[in-house]
Amino acid sequence: MAAIAPAERHNAVAEMPDELRADVRLLGGLLGQVIAEHGGPDLLADVERLRKAVIAARRQETTADEVAALVAEWPVDRAVQIARAFTCYFHLANLAEEHYRIRTLRQRDQDDVPLRESLAEAVQRLRGDDRLQDLIDGLEFRPVLTAHPTEARRRAIVTAIQRISAQLDAYNAPGRGAAEREEAHRRLLEEIDILWRSAQLRHTKLDPLDEVRTAMAAFDETLFRTVPLIYRSLDAALGSGTGTREPLAKAYIRYGSWIGGDRDGNPNVTAKVTREAIQIQAEHVLIALENAATRIGRSLTLASAFTPPSAELRAALAQAEDDHPDLVSEMATRSPREPHRQWLMFVAARIAATRRRDLDLAYRAPAELLADLRLMQDSLRGAGAVRQAYGELQHLIWQVETFGFHLAELEVRQHSAVHAAALKEIASGTVSERTEEVLATIRVIGWIQERFGVTACSRYVVSFTRSADDIAAVYELARHALGDRAPVLDVVPLFESGEDLDNSSAVLEGMVKLEPVRRRLADNGRRMEVMLGYSDSAKELGPAAATLRLYDAQAALTAWAAANDITLTLFHGRG
After folding, report:
1. Tell me: the pLDDT tens digits for 64-73?
2. What is the pTM of this model?
3. Is 513 a catalytic residue?
4. Where are the domains of the chain?
5. By the number of CB atoms within 10 A of the CB, which of 89, 310, 402, 569 ranks highest?
6. Which of 38, 148, 415, 480 does the annotation list as catalytic?
7. Residue 288's CB: how many other CB atoms inside 10 A?
8. Active-site pick, 272, 513, 539, 572
């Protein structure tokens, strides 16, 4: 791409949309007020001097050396304050841009025409195509949360920005009265003051479990609520009457996570960390499911006279009362003649017991919870309450189908050389602490599968896979770790260097000859996964050459899979 001339760069700045410019000015002005209150007008003046100097340099009205000379004039303490000011400003400018993008998407969604590149548009284009139902049935999306042990931004900063975002929404909301708008303005100033006064960087090193907890913020605040809305959008696109009929859209999103599982080059990720990571995930998803069930249950004040329960639901409630008389009696007292409400509150109590590990009341698996939810859904539908059957209750069903009791599949990654060294030590009879850790990791995978099911942790990524022997090594180590009780493993080769990419099809050819791989292919419908690394190939070959090599590798792998009746999934490790 050709470089943008100075005049063109100036025009690009000048063409900033009015709404975006207004938000940037609002947030920047409030930040300026906070800076002046905290550090005095002189600090704000220095920030403005640097801002204008950088703009002038960008327009080639001055030089970068002059900007550097300006910065060099300041003592370290003053330079740090100014750096903090710009850090806060960029947080706010990015936030303003996000709000503008959201507003733009909402404006586009006002038309009858589906949003470009949306699921609704794809369904519209395929309407009448015989492949549509097969594509829907085979739809699968697996976003993976990757580990970033060098992430410096604190969760406190992330949540502060989210609070500012909420107040910016309130400030810009149409139809607000003057008093409401003034209160939103005051709250914006308060939250920006908190952002300014908060330390931007961590004072302690981020450990893997800190990373897990940070990732949980995205689940708690966004993913759990958003996922059913995505399914609802697809269901509406597939046919009219969504929310009053059995859904046409299935739950096709399954999250994965490397956080707490990726130990390639990170000695802080141990078997103990992996075990604790899945427990943290389970805690968050079970709390979310309990809260959702409680919220929906409290709203279902459906009198039995108007919405009679099915015989199956009456029998289930009677059995629940026999098994847990005090609990069910209390619910019946609080919600007399509201059997659907009683049942869902009982379900919420069982989810809470699952989190507490109260085995007398807990669900043993998500399938049991889904059965109870569908029992209620069938009862509501039979009573004519289809909106309640396929509304919020369906959202809860989709959430259970998506997240289970483990939230995201924890994926393990380890370097092929570590496996080779471990097998060599085992053969020699002198097992080191590092090899014991490899075996302990496989035992933890087995424990996770016993507790949460195979889908909670079965993918084992082998970085720098050079041959099928690197895949066989994992299965051999699993045999050493647990013998006949070895966990179900989908061992995924990771091809990273140019040579490894060229050799990838040959590695798969060797893999399908391994007995554990052949058994797994027979069980999973001949599905296989391969991971393609982008970082190492780009460092070795350069970005352009690496892109071409990756393209050729994908073409070769696709051809190999077709020739061998394999459904191949390519996992792109782009980060």
Report:
1. 899 999 999 9
2. 0.86
3. no
4. 1-111+154-205, 276-397, 411-573
5. 402
6. 148
7. 19
8. 539
